[in-house]
Amino acid sequence: MKKCNYLRLIKFTALTIIFYFKCYSAFSQQKISGFVRDINDKQPLSSASVIIKGTNSGTSTDNNGFFRLIAKKGSTLVFSYLGYISQEVLIGSDSVLNISMSKFVSGLDQVVVTGYTSQKVKEITGSVTVVGGDDLTSVPDGEIEKMLQGKVAGLTVINSGEPGSVSNVRINGIGNFGDVTPLYIIDGVEGDINLLNPNDIESLQVLKDAGSYAIYGVRGANGVILVTTKKGKNGKTTMNFDASETVQEPLSKGLDILGPQGQADYIWLAYKNSGQVDAQGNPSSPLYGNGPTPVLPDYIVNGNGYAANAPQVNPSLYNITPTAINPIYQIMKFNKQGTDWFHELFKPAFTQNYAFSASGGHDKDHYLVSLGYLDQEGTYLETFLKKITVRVNTDFSVNDAIRFGENIQLYQSQSPPGSPDIYHALLTDPYLPVYDIEGNSSSENGQRAGPADNPVTAQLLTKDNRFYQWHIFGNVFAEADILKHLTFRSSFGGGFYFFDSYTYTYGAYDPSQGLNSLDEITGYARSLTWTNTVTLSEKFKGGHSLKLLAGTETKSDYGRNQTGTSEGYLTNDPNLRLLGNGDGVPTDESINGMASSAFLSSFISRAEYGFKDKLFFTATLREDGSSVFGPENRFGWFPAVSAAWRITEENFMKKINWLTDLKLRASWGKSGFDGNTGSLNQYTLYSGGPGSSYYDIFGTSNSTVQGYTTVQYGNAKTGWQKDIMTNAGFESILWKGKLSITADWYQKKSTGLLFPVSLPAILGYATPPNVNVGEVDNTGVNITLGSRGSFSKDWGWNSSIAITTYHNKVVKLNDLPYLDDGPYNGIDYPVRQEVGYPEGSFFGYKIIGIFQNAADVSRSPVQQDAAPGRFKYFDANHDGVINDEDRVHFGNPNPIFTAGINLGVTYKNIDLSTFSYWSCGNDVLNETAGSLDLSNGGVTPKSSAALYGSWTPKNPNATIPIVENSFNFSNSDAVNSYPLEKGSYFRNKTFIVGYTLPARIIKKYKITRIRLYAEAANLFTVTKYKGLDPEVSGSTSAFGIDIGNYPANQRQYSIGINLNF
Amino acid sequence: MKYVKFFLMALFAITITSSCYKAKLNQPVPGLLQEQQLANNTGVQGLLIGAYAMLDGVSTPGSPADPSYGSAGSNWIYGSICGSEAHTGSFNGDLTIVEQIEEFGSNPGTIYFDIKWAAVYEGVQRANSALRLMREAKDMSTADTIEVRAEALFLRAFYHFEAKKMWNNIPFVNENVTYNNNNFHVKNDTSWQPIENDLIYAAAHLRTSQMTQGIGRANNYAAEALLAKAYMFEHKFAQAKTLLTDLIQNGQTSSGVKYDLNELYSDNFNAADKNSKESVFAYQSSVNDGVSSPWGGNGNTGDILNLPNGGESGCCSAFQPSQYLVDHFRTDSKTGLPGLDNNLPPVKNDQGIMSADPFKPDTGTLDPRLDWTVGRRCIPYLDWGKDPGYDWTREQFGGPYSSKKDAVYKAQEAQYTANGATIATALNINFIRFADILLWAAEAEAEIGSLDQAEAYVNRIRARAANPAGFVYKYIDPANPAGGFTDTPAAHYFIKQYPPGYFQSNGRPFALKAIYYERMLELGMEGHRFFDLVRWHIAATEINAYIQSEQNLTSYLKGVTFIPNKNEYFPISQIQIDLSAGPDGKPVMTQNPGY
Asked: Coil, helix or strand for A394?
């Protein structure tokens, strides 16, 4: 083997030398043979042409990609293959030529699905990015949204590290305050991309401008991603098998949390600084005694600290099953070394991913069957996702005119029913041991609390909780060519969804503090879409072509669920966790149910005109009627026009050889958005519940009379969001695909944004409806640079950079001055949506320094709780008083740009690729640091920065205010800019090395291809952010707020295999 | 052209079929009630029940994580803790917001003020929704509409009154303020007029007996009493006096019983004696009624933290009486009268003494109401056993004492506590009891009428307190508290009425001082004190004196000051002020002075 490789290397070197010095002998004839393969997947290319340059003679490759011919030394062979970059090779002394060919960056003749029809890439007039299934799976991950990050300019993806969590996906900025997830159309039917097996995807088309997505009408305004699943192809059955094993490692460094001694010192300092000391000037605490310095106890009993020899630490007193005479007595060791809660909670995690498929077909019938299995663990205890997918796609032709087929998928998943509260778990006192002296779960509040009070056991006890999902979705379709150019197509599709989720809550040690209980919720939903279209397609003399499409679509949705709660289970045996096994005492939520239904009726039309492959016009028009809106605002029309000019097809451009293709595009269109509007939005609704509106009006002490209350205000005038988008751009291919550049500029005006407006509490608790609250404008530029080719017959490269920028601004708010938003932090909302500011803008008091002394306080504007060592806020209106009018927008979570950078190199059978992601210029609110660094009157864990780096008269330049036992307006009891940090980061997301076994080795096992690969993910991140991970997901309108986010930057290592038979 | 014809035909067919589907755009409304289903007698009555259900300030079964304490109907935080009767208990760092409020350090961002605001206005809206749907109901008799209107207006006034006490400067929200009318940016002002108007209607139109409709309903006398309370707050003593005299002479409970003091003071805090002749208006607490949450459901959810911790009788020790309150119960050993100038010796306490270490309780003369108001070391705590002091508190963070009026007897546990767990109970929250009426009447008389009559009212209260049957007695067997009580009083109780003519001879200021003092003794820990101090215009002096005397017990009071003309009212939630802004961005609500 080794010798052989040396030989090949020498041959290669020789060839290169020959090539460079152009010293060749010109006349001898030579037999040449070899294989032609795809540079990436090493699949043989059959029927590729091999021509001797300057002649008409040549040959083509057979089914194995093999060719043989005779040529003169010194002549040049031209290898070409449809959709691939042609390659020229000089013939030297080598008689074996193995050629690796690269695909065209954009296969101009590739046919891709666009709205309700399909087009050649070169005919597309809108801004559409095609992602091939291979490109997608080149970054192995079980979750498709995560794999899309950085792949498409204009597509922003923010991930969380939690298995199965949904990423924030946005196309071209943030077009509304609610749900901005694009519309996913899977084989023509609305669906959920997260349910797909990535290996089943043939291609994804990301429709980014209204010219291409307006045909999806009222559902389209967030952009549309069309997913085409793989189909069987002509030829014998091929089978693929992919497997990978992954280990993910928790971050080595957790949060900066003081150890027990430090925490005690902090408390002492806080008491002293707050004057909360006895006559001798000493603080006191039940844990640390009373003296000039805190004394760490050996044991904790009922919140008091004791030395090891104290009588209270007698294990015979221990009791966690209280009776009337014998109350709880839990004895815990005080962990002087400190419990590293972070690493108690985050452990290495393993993932297995398998995919198998078989496909094939003959001229008329094709089939594909696939099977996927993912068993993914999260590093946080008991977080996981297990899913199984089965897909069957078939299509048949009855005769030349009639075709039918189906695409169907089954999906089952298991995951935990909820997300863990990482924020509070990480803020557990470090002196607390995980287990008490008897090995039972320790509990912070001692006495009565139970295992749920300890983050490790709380999480371990969720082990048997489950959220099961079953989905069946897909479509059946029939196509008939009624006349020569007239095709009728009918597709009936949709999905059925069933789920069951149950959560068991363990009781407290003292049952009077909370019984064990089981909550179960089950339900189903169905969505049915029926689409009927007729297409007329005709070519006319003189190069004119016309394609007309018209159709209808109806979509009907219905869902129903029921919840049950039962408590008082005899034992915690997981097998008894059925609702019937509780004590039978009804609880408030004991039985409940909900249902919803919605209907959408639409008319679709589309016209495409083409002239000689160089001029294209497309116009689309859709009418939608949606039941979620009141009768006045139920119907709407959505027009769009777009045009493209392939300028390189013009004669005057033909001379420019380096410019292979240049297409100029422009589009304009209107689309809508009816999402995040419940189907009952138009109605004011009432309900009653035993715990909320029933009342013991007869004074019986144990029975109530049914009562009602308003639960929702309806708004019949709410209509859908209306977006107007203008897009202009170009697509170019240079040097026959060695370089490609696509750039787009867009402007998107989103009016009538749908949002559940916050109402003053004088209207009561009823949920406000979604209303059309205002307008957001987005402008941006998306640039994709691609480059691929080969340096020589053995060396190839491919690289791409996708740059996304958007500038987002709230332009108008109807009848509202602003919208406060964000995770409520117990004080106020950290986000305010306001005219003139970008969405998600952070809002509050801006810190301009720390009061240094009494004189500083007195010469500064009047501020509540102002004192030396506390924050000094910015007097925004210069009125000498700090009050609510001085709150300002102090941070912006939107990046200036993001870039996905993909670099790949192949050498012979080795492929190497790396993908990096860069987010630049975004701010993050590090609420976790805010909690660790700032005094809040509690004794929660603090950072070492807070103890050692906070303000003292001798440390006047500190940014952390004075340590004190106080929670006030001038330290942490106001939304202020302390947690603001720069969130820019550059992350190497994946680094992959693959090796494809040489064909001659595997041929005898009848295997077409074996590729082995190893991947390292999240190898390094460059950032100034001090929290765990600057990639912080959140809601659409409030994001970049780090409150115990599940880090998405944990390193992981995988090995995998791709097998093709 | 044939194709085009076909195409057009197909298009036509599509348009026709498509229009057939448009009827399906009127989808049914599954699962929830709409206005037309409730706009009838049953529905309106149900909405009215819903309006009563907010009286506890909590709409959903709580859990310890829910800050429903901030909206508790009992006002234990605002009325009692801020009113110098009690401290924030539990352990250091647990109830930081309550502690901050106690320290008068709260600000417009303090969440409890948002929660309380939302709870009282939810009550207002529930009352308003009954009024609104009644307009649409076709099957209601005139008598029914009058009664429903009167009850709804009473409740609406009650909820506004709660807001008025807290913030003074409040929006009045009538039934025409709705989401759909888009008129919900309501200015706040300090007027009492709309509250008075609602109560005047209610007092004039409510039934007297609610026996058949439910004794939890307000009757005409309850409305009259609340109106009298409003007049007291407004210092309209003449109007108040007229109503109060009528109430004392003719008033009846909703069950048709003439108002009177219960024979035993403690009957007011016994779930078995709820809706007694002394109860004027109360939240009807219920447990085990289909909501089995140990955290409350329809029990007194806002108060579930307040019982002693560590024993069996409950949890959390969040509401700990102050030494200042306890000292008020000292009586003069010769006269049996209270020390109105706080000049009597303080009551001995067990602060800093572990339960295992010996302690001898105070032996001086005391008002017997003390040991029904305060749980203190060595004194029988109902039938739960002797109060062990330290072990029932959480490290004595808020002092050595426990609350007591909100505890049920162990013998009642099964019947009056949620799920048999003594957290939430079926003890009513007394908003107005007859003793309250007597003391207002005494105050009104002292202000503008007869000092003798004032004294007579006060003495009626003291006479009941002096009833030896109402003392706390020692256990027969301390090891078996359920075994009954001896006839030995648990402490040296000694209380006398004011001698005849005492008020007259000492003059009006003395009389008022005695009445103010008596309110604390009679109504201590019942959520009234702070609001009383404010309406008497003595909050700053009283509370600052309290802070001075109390800060050695609870060190967190060091450096705390009550700022006059600011801290009399709480800050209005910044969130609500922000939300009151119309399209121009200018909030229509104004913040209280000083915030």
From this structure: strand
Tens digit of pLDDT for each residue in A846-887? 999 999 999 999 999 999 899 999 999 999 999 999 988 999
Distance (Å, whole) CA B325 – CA A747: 68
In sequence order, the β-bridge partners of residue A668 are A641, A726
**A10 phi/psi in degrees, rounded to 5:** -60, -40
pLDDT tens digit sequence for B369-378:
999 999 999 9
Determine the distance in angstroms separating the CA of B333 from the nearest CA of chain A, rounded to an integer. 33
Q: Are A232 and A361 in contact (CB under 8 A)?
A: yes
Cβ–Cβ < 8 Å for A900, A909? no
Cα A554 to Cα A116, A184, A603, A604, distances in angstroms: 14, 17, 9, 11
Closest by Cα among B53, B48, B26 to B130: B48
Whether A625 and chain B come into contact, CB under 8 Å, resolves to yes
Q: Which of B395, B575, B586 sits opposite A286 (nearest CB)?
A: B395
Given 3.40.50.11290, 3.90.226.10, 3.40.1360.10, 1.25.40.390, which CATH number is that of B315-409+431-551? 1.25.40.390
The amino acid at A607 = A
Q: Which of residues 437-476 of A touch B (CB under 8 A)?
A: 447-448
> H-helix or E-strand containing B205?
helix B193-205
User: What mean pLDDT is reported for chain B?
Assistant: 91
Q: What is the pTM of this model?
A: 0.82
Note whether B14-143+162-190+552-595 and B315-409+431-551 share their fold: yes
Given a cut of 60, whether residue B420 has pLDDT beyond it is: no
Give me the residue from B121, B287, B293 closest to A762, CB to CB: B121
Q: Which of A846-850, A926-930, B3-7 has the lowest mean pLDDT?
A: B3-7
A710 contacts in chain B (CB < 8 Å): 125-126, 129
Interface of B with A in 456-515 (CB under 8 A): none
Those residues with Cβ within 8 angstroms of residue B393's Cβ, 6 or more apart along the chain or in another chain: B89, B308, B309, B310, B317, B320, B399, B400, B401, B402
Mean pLDDT of the region A238-254: 91
Compute the Cα dihedral for A302, A304, A305, A307 and give only its sign.
Answer: negative
Restricting to A residues 382-421, those with a Cβ less than 8 Å away from any Cβ of B are none
Put simply, whether A815 touches B (Cβ < 8 Å) is yes
Residue B221 scores a pLDDT above 70: yes
From residue A244, give the alpha-carbon distance in Å to each of A40, A164, A194, A350, A1015. Answer: 19, 18, 19, 11, 10
Q: Beta partners for B261?
A: none
**Nearest CB neighbour to A702, from listed B30, B184, B287:** B287
With CB atoms and an 8 Å threshold, state whether B298 touches A595.
no
Which helix (H) or strand (E) segment is A344 a member of?
A: helix A341-345
pLDDT, tens digit (0-9, with 9 covering 90-100), for A518-567 = 999 999 999 999 999 999 988 888 889 999 999 999 999 999 999 888 88
- What single string gives the DSSP state of each residue in A658-710? TEEEEEEEEEEEEEEE-TT--TTTT--EEE--TTTT-B-TT--SS--B---EE
Task: Provide, as residue numbers in chain B, all residues whose Cβ is less than 8 Å from the Cβ of A975.
Answer: 109
- Whether the CB of B107 is below 8 Å from some CB of chain A: the reply is yes
Please give the Cα distance from A143 to A224 (Å, whole number). Answer: 18
Sequence spans of domains, chain B: 14-143+162-190+552-595, 315-409+431-551
Contacts of B253 in chain A (CB under 8 A): none
Return the CATH fold of B14-143+162-190+552-595: 1.25.40
Q: Is A767 exposed, middle or buried (0-12, 13-18, 19+ CB in 10 A)?
A: middle
* Structure confidence by residue, pLDDT tens digits, A991-1012: 999 998 887 788 778 788 899 9
Taking the C-alpha atoms of residue B405 and residue B300, their distance in angstroms, rounded to an integer, is 13
Using the Cβ of B160 and the Cβ atoms of chain A, whether some distance falls under 8 Å is answered with no
